[in-house]
């Protein structure tokens, strides 16, 4: 308890682990004592460690409330809920940091190379960012000397119930995108396929008939922050179904951390040291009272709440590192595609427009976004092994 008032990260981490140990031992009295200490450190308007601690405390309260609702002295019902955004607000949200745009830029570069010279292109998009990736791709296709291809984009009707949330339907997003493409003279079809459960996509949804595949199209599968929501025990099966579709390219971007451990203490250590990154990066350019900053942090807080506060089917945030994902792709029969120097240069240019702490490193099968040298987001590109154009 000597850490009271301390803002030191390692000390806060020890307190969190102490609380987790008490909860795992069903020692509610000790958990209450540690939460009291954490409550005196946490602040929604403080420095990054204080703000991060606030969300871990809330997540632990959610967990403790299920063990002993009447014994908790803290209000577990007052958690801030993420609010739906307008399309304009979502664009500002995505532009706030390179967290999403890094993957957009790298994946689009790989896609443009793969479909060069094709007259018909079909992208099946599994993403939580409501097609925000595609205006830039459409812009680039509009510049092709031979003219743009006929482009189709297919999205599932449902997505994981996680931030960012949008107050517009998938169909409305498609209408906006088609209007944008028309202004760029790029022929675009947009289709929403009916999916009853985004966490259990199977052969019924992932087959040529359901996806409306055409023999004359180059098929691209794009996964942006999606695979973590596919249950761990069905993730290989999902990738096997993707392989059977015989795409010319699969792109995948996600956060580079292992957060699916069955051990609560292991998840706390990894989560605390990983999700420090967005809190610290926002500190560099947004005031402490900024509503935009607090909204962004609320979305991260919802992730922490799910990772720490829940188990079983309720815990849908099950991240795995880029290295583990690469191994999974190889087992599914895919071979990695190296990003071209032009794409790498485009990503570096994007990062140069942001805070100096952002950087990038190239690893064997991926590009990795870093913050002050810490890995944050990976992006990769794959083809079926033995694929020959």
Instruction: Give me the CATH fold name of the largest domain.
Output: Rossmann fold
The total count of helices amounts to 13
Q: Which shape, going by the Cα principal axes?
A: globular
- Beta percentage is 15-25%
Radius of gyration (Å): 22 Å
CATH architect. name of the largest domain: 3-Layer(aba) Sandwich
Overall strand count: 9
Mean pLDDT metric: 91
Give the CATH superfamily of the largest domain: Vaccinia Virus protein VP39
End-to-end Cα distance, whole Å, is 63 Å
Low-confidence stretches: none
SS-derived structural category: alpha/beta
Q: Give the C-level CATH assignment of the largest domain.
A: Alpha Beta
Number of domains: 2
**What is the H/E order?**
HHHHHEHEHEHEHEHHHEHEEE
**Share of helix, binned:** 40-55%
Describe this structure in words.
The chain is built from 13 helices and 9 strands. It has helices spanning 9-24, 28-41, 48-67, 87-95, 98-115, 134-142, 170-183, 208-211, 232-244, 264-283, 291-309, 322-331, 341-352, and strands at 120-127, 150-156, 188-193, 218-224, 249-255, 334-336, 358-363, 366-371, 374-384. Helix 1 (9-24) packs antiparallel against helix 2 (28-41), helix 2 (28-41) runs antiparallel to helix 3 (48-67) and helix 3 (48-67) packs antiparallel against helix 10.
């Amino acid at each position: 308890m000597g850490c009271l008032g301390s803002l030191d990260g390692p000390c806060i981490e020890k307190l969190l682990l102490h609380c987790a140990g008490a909860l795992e031992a069903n020692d509610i009295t000790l958990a209450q004592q540690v939460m009291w200490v954490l409550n005196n450190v946490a602040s929604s308007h403080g420095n990054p460690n204080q703000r991060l601690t606030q969300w871990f405390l809330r997540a632990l309260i959610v967990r403790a409330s299920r063990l002993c609702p009447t014994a908790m002295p803290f209000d577990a019902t007052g958690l801030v809920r993420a609010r739906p955004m307008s399309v304009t607000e979502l664009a500002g949200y995505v532009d706030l940091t390179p967290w999403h745009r890094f993957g957009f830029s790298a994946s689009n570069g790989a896609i443009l190379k793969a479909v060069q010279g094709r007259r018909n292109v079909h992208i099946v998009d599994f993403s939580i960012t409501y097609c925000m990736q595609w205006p830039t791709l459409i812009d680039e296709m509009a510049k092709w000397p031979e003219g743009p291809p006929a482009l189709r984009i297919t999205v599932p009707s449902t997505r994981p119930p996680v931030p960012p949330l949008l107050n517009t339907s998938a169909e409305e997003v498609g209408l906006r995108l088609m209007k944008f493409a028309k202004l760029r003279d790029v022929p675009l079809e947009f289709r929403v396929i009916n999916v009853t459960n985004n966490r259990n996509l199977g052969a019924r949804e992932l087959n040529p008939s359901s996806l409306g595949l055409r023999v004359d199209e180059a098929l691209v599968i794009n996964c942006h922050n999606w695979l973590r929501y596919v249950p761990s025990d069905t993730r290989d099966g999902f990738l096997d179904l993707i392989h059977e579709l015989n795409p010319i390219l699969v792109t995948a971007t996600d956060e580079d951390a292992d957060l699916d451990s069955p051990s609560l203490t292991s998840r706390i250590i990894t989560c605390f040291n990983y999700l420090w990154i967005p809190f610290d990066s926002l500190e560099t350019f947004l005031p402490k009272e900024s509503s935009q900053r607090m909204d962004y942090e609320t979305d991260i807080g919802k992730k922490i709440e799910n990772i720490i506060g829940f188990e079983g089917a309720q815990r849908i945030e099950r991240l795995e590192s880029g290295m583990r994902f690469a191994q999974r792709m190889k087992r599914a029969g895919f071979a990695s595609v190296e990003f071209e120097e032009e794409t790498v240069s485009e990503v570096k240019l994007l990062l140069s427009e942001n805070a100096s702490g952002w950087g990038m490193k190239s690893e064997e099968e991926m590009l990795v976004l870093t913050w002050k040298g810490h890995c944050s987001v990976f992006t990769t590109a794959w083809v079926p092994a033995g694929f020959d154009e």
